[in-house]
């Protein structure tokens, strides 16, 4: 009996710790920056180099080698980035043209037709969570195939195409290593911090919340709380019973996922133990666009889902009957006139 009591206390402790971890992840302010460069050229010349900068799924800037100009897509960003900083970025992009051409020469050296056009891409991505860098990666893509990639935390290039292994020693050289680290720290991570630290990249939107209740095949009560269409990404969903926070059962989360319109989605479910009737539960939602935490009560009865196929079938059947009735009436009238 004592052992069982200790085990329950230990289990509750672990559940509480896991709940705190989940809470931290849900509340985290997360941002992502992707720099994508696409180059087209031959062994002899670089025909075009285009670059785009995307932050939190919003394009914030672009570069084109045709005019060697940086285009800022969101006007207020120019107020955040000092002129000297912009000039540094411009200088790096112009120099990047030469480095890209050299890389294309190296990779196309074995091509017997040196006038053939080739496409090279570099994808640099970094992410911050509460202003702390959590991810930094680079991908090298040649003719649509990924040849090399590196995770900055690992610090070693991964070769995905054995036939181009000779590029490894160049990527590992001090020159390219310093260039890579400087670019990722200064112009991926720090630039992201500058911009998102100044203002939101898009209009804030409050979440649309739905709460449901159903019973699974094992007879357990499952509560679901879904928030969608919100921006920014940071949000908190939590379950309360009779106004109190606690560990009420097995809680699972979808994680914060992106929607097609650059807003976000989060679903939180709670599987209750057999002895819990599921009464008195609410889903509490906190978001920057909600002035105070919003409280959504859980239905006392299971949420009924209308089968969409059945609904459509009924509508079609009604339309068909009405059409037939209309045709029959018209036929009767026509027959009466003929008589």
Automatic annotation (TrEMBL):
Q: Which SMART domains has this protein been placed in?
A: IGc1 (SM00407)
Question: Which intervals hold domain Ig-like?
Answer: 207-294
Q: Which UniProt keywords apply?
A: Cell membrane, Disulfide bond, Glycoprotein, Membrane, Signal, Transmembrane, Transmembrane helix
PROSITE patterns (UniProt xref): IG_LIKE, IG_MHC
Picking any one GO biological process from the record gives: immune response
Q: Where in the cell is it found?
A: Cell membrane
**One cellular component term from this protein's GO annotations in UniProt:** extracellular space
Task: Give start-end of the signal peptide.
Answer: 1-28
The membrane spanning regions, by residue number, are 309-331
Q: What is this protein called?
A: Ig-like domain-containing protein
Species per Swiss-Prot/TrEMBL record: Sarcophilus harrisii (Tasmanian devil)
Q: What is the lineage of its organism?
A: Eukaryota, Metazoa, Chordata, Craniata, Vertebrata
Q: Which gene name does the record give?
A: LOC105749196
